[in-house]
Amino acid sequence: MALYEHVYLARQDVSAQQVESLSEQFKTIIEQHGGKIDKIEYWGVKSLAYRINKNRKAHFTLFNVDAPAGAVAEMERQMRINEDVLRFLTVRVEELEQGPSAMMRKRDDDDRERGERGERRSRSERGPRRRDEPDVSEEGAF
């Protein structure tokens, strides 16, 4: 069986519980066709880069799928029929990522960059500057 990462976008006006039931429905389709979903990550409601069917935001959900191509094709067919699904993308991968995805890790990295109250840390706490940034003290005043 092949490994896939699948992301779908649901309309913003459906509730999180309805998105969860959609995910369960798609998981059932995959399992009926001999596959399995290793991980389901709900990324929340995020802004879209451009409007899709008059929607400015959408619920984002990630699946890590281990299934035959026919199972993924059937799930995609069901998504095309469902009016709550705006877009989806399936990518075949060599191996599935274990642990949280990059979208979930981003929040952790931001928390480490900021202090307790959300303030940026001082330059000395963050480390050295990149070499391509000129140091104002060396060049003098403008």
What does this entry look like structurally?
By secondary structure, the chain is α+β, with helices and mostly antiparallel strands. It has one domain: Ribosomal protein S6/Translation elongation factor EF1B (Alpha-Beta Plaits), CATH 3.30.70.60. It has helices at residues 16-32, 69-81, 102-113, 123-126, 136-139; strands at 2-11, 36-52, 55-67, 85-93. A hairpin with a 2-residue loop joins strand 2 and strand 3 (55-67). Helix 1 runs antiparallel to helix 2. The longest helix has 17 residues, at 16-32. It starts with a strand and ends with a helix.
Strand order of the largest sheet: 2-3-1-4
**The named CATH superfamily:** Ribosomal protein S6/Translation elongation factor EF1B
Mean pLDDT: 84
Class from helix and strand fractions:
alpha+beta
Low-confidence stretches: none
Largest sheet: 4 strands, antiparallel
CATH names the topology as Alpha-Beta Plaits
Number of domains: 1
Discrete helix count: 5
Q: What key attributes describe this structure?
A:
globular; alpha+beta; Alpha-Beta Plaits; about 140 residues; 4-stranded antiparallel beta sheet
Structure at a glance:
This protein has one domain (2-104): Alpha-Beta Plaits, CATH 3.30.70. The protein has helices spanning 16-32, 69-81, 102-113, 123-126, 136-139, and strands at 2-11, 36-52, 55-67, 85-93.
Layout: helices, strands, pairs:
Layout: E1 2-11, H1 16-32, E2 36-52, E3 55-67, H2 69-81, E4 85-93, H3 102-113, H4 123-126, H5 136-139
Antiparallel strand pairs: 1-3, 1-4, 2-3
Helix pairs in contact: 1-2
